[in-house]
Amino acid sequence: MSGEVFDLFGNPVRPGRGQKGRPPFEVTDKDRNKVKLLLAMGWSNQRVANAIGVSLATLKRYFRAELTVRDQMRDRLEARRLELAMDLANAGNTAGMRELDRLIMKNDQKLAAAKMTQADEAEREEERPTSRYVGKGEISRKRANALAAGETQSEWGSLLKPGSYEN
Is 17 within a domain? Predict the structure, then answer.
């Protein structure tokens, strides 16, 4: 057995952790895959850093490429699952065929929901008034101008008309 020490969760403990002058972090393929998986699951950067046992700064420094394509990770995970299910189905595995059918149905439901959402948004867009919001101040100015122009009557009668003061 090698002299490597593991923590409670089976991760190797880095030599000199927490000591001054510890060796630099070394990225492994296992770490890269773990970061990609956690990003695909929607985890925050801090949570991912905690999961692989590094600081947030170390995560950003060594996994910059993975972090910049965070939005694509979920799609890549789904595509890989479809690919594996298709391989199993092509090999004649009935469980693989069922899983492929389930994934296809799930994908179709997502597409249908997206189309319905787009249709609802387009319908709401048509219902929105084309004019802008009119505030209380603007309504008061319009009423005052209408009264001054004589377009509407008020209980004040002609007293509000410019130049027509009666005593």
Answer: yes
Indicate the number of domains in the chain.
2
Q: Does some domain include residue 138? A: no
Q: What is the pLDDT of residue 61?
A: 93
Residue 129, pLDDT > 90, answer no
Answer yes or no: do 1 and 64 share one domain: yes
Contacts of 58 (CB under 8 A, 6+ apart): 25, 49
DSSP-derived secondary structure for 1-52 = --S--B-TTSPBPPTTTTSTTPPPP---HHHHHHHHHHHHTT--HHHHHHHH
Q: Tell me the angle at which helices 29-40 and 70-90 cross, rounded to the nearest 10 degrees.
A: 100
Residue 14 tokens read as 């880095």
Averaged pLDDT of the chain: 82
Domain residues for 57?
A: 1-68
User: Are 117 and 96 found together in one domain?
Assistant: yes
- pLDDT for 19: 65
pLDDT over 60 at 4, yes or no: yes
- Determine, yes or no, domain membership for 149: no
Q: How many residues does the chain have?
A: 167
Average pLDDT over residues 128-146: 78
